[in-house]
Every structure is written in C-alpha cells, then in structure tokens.
Amino acid sequence: MDYQKMYREKLRTADEAVKVIKSGDWVDYGFCAIHPRVLDEALARRAPELEDVKVRGGISLWKPAIFDIENPREHIIFNSHHMSSVERHHIASGAGFYEPMRYSELPRYYYDHITPPDVAMFQVTPMDEHGYFNFGLSASHVKAVCEMSKVVIVEVNEKMPRCLGGFDECIHISDVDMVVEGRNDPMGVQPFIPPTEVDKTVARLIVEQIPDGACLQLGIGGMPNTVGAMLCDSDLKDLGVHTEMYVDAYVDLAMAGKVSCARKNIDRGRQVFAFAAGTQKLYDYLNDNPACMAAPISYTNDVRTIAAIDNFVSICNAVDIDLYGQVNGETSGIKQISGSGGQQDFVLGSYLSKGGKSFICMSSTFKDKDGTPHSRIRGTLTPGSVVTDTRVNTMYVVTEYGMVCLKGLSSWERAEKLISIAHPDFREELIKEAEKQKIWYPNNRR
C-alpha cells in the first residue's frame, strides 16, 4: 500500500479542514501539549459564522486562539478535562466549564457515555514509513477520541517528540480523514517553579520514607518536583517510574542514575506515563527513548495496575484538608482551580501496593489577595469545596510541621494528628473547632 499517496490525497490547509465543523458540533482538541495550533487558529477565524460549538481539551500550555474570539459564549464553549491556569481564567469568564471525572475512566466516557466528537483535531509526529502518526506527548485517552470521532484531522508537527509506547499511542493514515501540516511550533512549556523553603522541608520528610526500588508517581507542582530533586542527591537506587504526568524531575532522576525500573513487577525497565509536559530537556529525553513508555490513561491510572507494583509511592498536592481527613485537591469553594485528575486513583492504588504509600503534601498556610494568612487544615472544608479524596482513603498528610498517617484512626485521633501539623498560629482555633464538632478527646494534648 502506498502510504505517501494516501497522505497526499488527504492533505489539506487548516482553513480547508475546519470547514467540516458545523454549528452545534462537538470538537476534540486532544490533551495538553498536543492541542492543535494552526487548526485552532483556523477555527477561531471561522467563529463568527458558527454557534454553539463545544470544544473538549485540557491542561492548555498556551492560550488557544478560540479563547480570544469576540463573544466566545455565543460561538465556542471550552470544556476542560483538567484545568491549567490558562483555562481557569477562561472558565471564570463564563466561556467554559470543567468536566468532573476520574481521569482513568476517561476513555470509557468516550466509548460509553459522552456525546461522541463530530471532529477531533490535534498535533502528531510526522508519519513513519509504516503509515503511523504518533500521538507524541499525550497518549492519554486520544485513541478513544479517534475511534469515536466522526472526522479525525491530524496536524503534523516535526518538533513533536515521538514517544514509544505499549499500545494506543498512534493512529494509522488509513484511520485519518485529513492531514494538515503545521508550522512546526516548539512544544508548549510547563515552566519550572523554584522550590520554597516549605517545599524543601516537606520534601525532606517524604524522601525519608522512600526505599530503594520504590516506584514513583509525582503530581503536578513545585513540591513533588522538589522531592525529585532531593532524590537525585540521595543514596537511593533502582527507582521506578509509573505516573500520569511525566515531568522534568524524572529526567533529572534518570540522568543521575537513580532510575532503572529494574524492580518493577510489570513493565520492567520502562518509565510509564500517560502524558508529558515540561521543558525542552524533557522533550529531547522522551524522543524515541525505549526506556520510556507512553500508554493510555485507562492503563497508567488503573488502580489494579498501580496496586500490582510493589513499593509504589504516590506524592500529590492538595488545596486543603479538614479535621476528618477529607482532601480537597481542586477547588476553592465553588471556584474550580484544578481538576481531580488521577489523584484518587493513585491514593487508592498505592495503598493496595505491597509496601506502597501515598502522601498528600501541602504548606500549612496560604495567603489571600490581601496578604492575610489562612490555614490549609480546616475544621470543615469551605462550603462548595470538592472532596477529591475521601477520609477513609487518606494515608500520609505532610506539612512543614510534620507528617501523620490517618489510616485506622478514629475521628478524635485524626483531629489531634492533623492539628499537630497545622501552623502553630491556628492550632488553638482548630482545637475549638474540633470541640464544637465533638471530635476532641478530653485527654488530647494542647
């Protein structure tokens, strides 16, 4: 079969390709670093003649052109699987919405539940000699998107890293309806956030709990990345990687000789991930690297997959936590600031792993716009806040004032433990809250 001939026959300009989109359609942008560029701009140019177009995507690393159209609510609404700061501001304006989910279930949502896409369009690597386009930095759920979409348009970017996989990391030219050759823009960058002293203190507490041969999952943010940096300077060896998001910290660990994946029960020798975002260093490392394995989110985040790996260590962030151990990892009251992602999956799976541990880490306080400090450990969560991890699933909680394990504890023991790692300025206030809620044992320490 002549794949180059098929390629030429399906080649279109971006403006030609987006003519297939009609008012009322669902359009899928893939996920994170593979969001379309020239196709997005072409759709933005078409916006004035369209109504009620609904776009799905998530973790935008740059501002999509459709966010800047006039009166976006009348023309194109964005629906986010997991919000970046770019999407957060757009959704706050009323021109978009968050889609609550358990990220590991997202492929099934496409197959069984949500309205199938009318058009899917996203960036891919150039076609190989066998006729395949690689999904590059985001295997995630993109195969399910392609299989359920009525029309599939790929935007070729020569700078997209080719991420080798196990399965569902590519699409064949025969399954593509149109090919658009993009500008070959650089990949979007997830900027490095320098660690704070609080990050370093929390990271030191966690690193002490990680054994040789542990398999790591680092969440998004400065604190998990700080753990990675400290592990580079540790004496640990033969670490493994199995994660939702692949970040620069894993590259540093691999280059420092800390990662071998030799002790993993499954996918031995492979660093497994669903999507990746970071700096050019990360993209160069992932390109055609057989030590790394891109896989769908239904595999990477499946609790059963995670549980099958011994000494699994999950490190995630949180917005706040109440005295019962309920963790909010995504909202500030009713304001959505992030997404649930795979946090629940990794909290559950790591505890089921032989020797596994999950850590919820946070600074003890945060400051509002006026500079007033507030405790992240609260009597109860703010009304409207989402419970990302239920109290029965929370294991270790870490702040700069210490680490506690909540497994197996009664309500008064939980309150005592959590107050012990709260900022000292808020402990008396939290004790009064616990007394008011009748979860403060009379003999508790003050």
What does this structure look like?
The protein has 16 helices and 27 strands. With 446 residues, it is α/β, with parallel strands linked by helices. The chain folds into two domains: 11-181, Glutaconate Coenzyme A-transferase (3-Layer(aba) Sandwich), CATH 3.40.1080; 197-436, Glutaconate Coenzyme A-transferase, CATH 3.40.1080.20. The strands form eight sheets. Strands 1-10-8-6-2-3-4-5 form an eight-stranded parallel β-sheet. A six-stranded mixed β-sheet has the order 12-11-17-22-26-27, sandwiched between helices. The mean pLDDT is 95.
Features:
28% helix, single chain, 446 residues, 21% strand, alpha/beta, six-stranded mixed β-sheet, Glutaconate Coenzyme A-transferase
Short description:
The chain has 446 residues and is an alpha/beta fold. It has 16 helices and 27 strands.
Class by helix and strand content? alpha/beta
Number of helices: 16
Q: How many β-strands, per DSSP?
A: 27
The average pLDDT value, as a whole number, equals 95
CATH superfamily of the largest domain: Acetyl-CoA hydrolase/transferase C-terminal domain
Domain count, please report it.
2
The low-confidence runs, each spanning 5 or more residues with pLDDT under 50, are none
In the CATH hierarchy, what is the architecture of the largest domain at level 2?
A: 3-Layer(aba) Sandwich
CATH topology heading of the largest domain: Glutaconate Coenzyme A-transferase
Helix fraction, binned, reads: 25-40%
